């Protein structure tokens, strides 16, 4: 048996034969001929020192070792297939690819509408959306987004950051809750009320905690969830009340969620990140314009509902 490593061409021939089931189909997929594929498979078997196929009734039947090898080859090709697929998308895109990284609170509220408006104006545009925190990336690990949507303010030097809009947190409850009859709510209104919090590290949970601590109000800290959407679902089930961002809250109003102004008012900041060392995508400015207008519309809705 040779000690030399097998080459990529041999791996491709083996993979194609396993994938398509016959030498003829493998040859067609690789743009080769049947005799060439047969000859190369025979050389591969001699090279590695064990048979990969049994010849039965003019057909190739994979051996047990061939099946195990194929699993490993497939795993190795996943990354290459993803790269090739991305290249195809880049080539087929009539204009450019805009990549957006967004916290779920925005990806599930204002971002879809902004993309719909952008697509209407630029139907040839290709977009990619990932619901991850853009702040978890850095210039060291490598940015993979053109626009990042985050809550709060970002002050690192590796990305340009600007505040897109400042909203106010709102109190939420089911329609049959006693607090639903109030015009607005203050900390003392939550005394001994079941309260559903955001995650322990959420910056807006911490700001709300400070308000209640200063008011010396004791709530029943019944549940907590990392997701504002999950909090809304729990509130709708009658499990408690909460204080969250108004964008997510508004999206649940049609399901029966009641929103109330909370005093003292607590800011909810929506910021945009743009990596400094990443090429600028022209359509990113258009998307930000749509996002800004949608935020203005949401703000107007909140004002009309006496929530800001």
From TrEMBL:
UniProt xrefs under InterPro entries: LysR_HTH_N, LysR_subst-bd, WH-like_DNA-bd_sf, WH_DNA-bd_sf
SUPFAM superfamilies referenced in this protein's UniProt entry, alphabetically: Periplasmic binding protein-like II (SSF53850), Winged helix' DNA-binding domain (SSF46785)
Domain HTH lysR-type, residue spans: 6-63
UniProt keyword Nucleotide-binding present: no
Pfam families the record matches: HTH_1, LysR_substrate
Coiled-coil blocks: none
GO biological process terms held by the UniProt record: lysine biosynthetic process via diaminopimelate; positive regulation of gene expression
Record keywords, A-Z: Activator, DNA-binding, Transcription, Transcription regulation
Protein family (similarity comment): Belongs to the LysR transcriptional regulatory family.
GO molecular function: DNA-binding transcription factor activity; sequence-specific DNA binding
Entry protein name: LysR family transcriptional regulator
PROSITE patterns xref list: HTH_LYSR
Organism taxonomic ancestry: Bacteria, Pseudomonadati, Pseudomonadota, Alphaproteobacteria, Hyphomicrobiales
């Amino acid at each position: 048996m040779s000690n030399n490593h097998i080459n990529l061409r041999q791996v491709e021939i083996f993979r194609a034969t396993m994938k398509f089931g016959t030498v003829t189909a493998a040859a067609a997929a690789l743009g080769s001929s049947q005799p060439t594929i047969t000859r190369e498979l025979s050389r591969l078997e001699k090279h590695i020192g064990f048979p990969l196929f049994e010849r039965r009734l003019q057909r190739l039947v994979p051996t047990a070792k061939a099946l195990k090898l194929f699993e490993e080859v497939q795993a190795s090709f996943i990354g290459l297939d993803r790269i090739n697929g991305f290249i195809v998308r880049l080539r087929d895109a009539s204009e450019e690819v805009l990549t957006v990284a967004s916290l779920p609170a925005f990806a599930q509220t204002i971002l879809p509408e902004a993309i719909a408006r952008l697509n209407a104006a630029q139907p040839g545009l290709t977009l990619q959306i990932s619901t991850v925190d853009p702040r978890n990336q850095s210039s060291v690990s490598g940015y993979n987004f053109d626009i990042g949507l985050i809550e709060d303010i970002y002050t690192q030097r590796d990305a340009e950051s600007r505040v897109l809009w400042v909203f106010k947190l709102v109190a939420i409850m089911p329609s049959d809750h006693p607090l639903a009859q109030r015009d607005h709510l203050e900390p003392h209104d939550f005394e001994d009320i079941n309260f559903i919090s955001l995650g322990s590290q959420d910056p807006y949970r911490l700001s709300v905690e400070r308000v209640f601590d200063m008011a010396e109000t004791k709530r029943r800290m019944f549940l907590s969830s990392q997701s504002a959407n999950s909090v809304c679902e729990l509130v709708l089930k009658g499990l408690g009340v909460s204080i969250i961002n108004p964008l997510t809250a508004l999206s649940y109003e049609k399901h029966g969620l009641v929103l109330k102004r909370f005093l003292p008012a607590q800011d909810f900041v929506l910021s945009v990140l743009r990596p400094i060392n990443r090429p600028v995508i022209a359509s990113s400015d258009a998307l930000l314009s749509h996002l800004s207008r949608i935020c203005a519309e949401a703000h107007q809705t909140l004002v009309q509902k006496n929530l800001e």
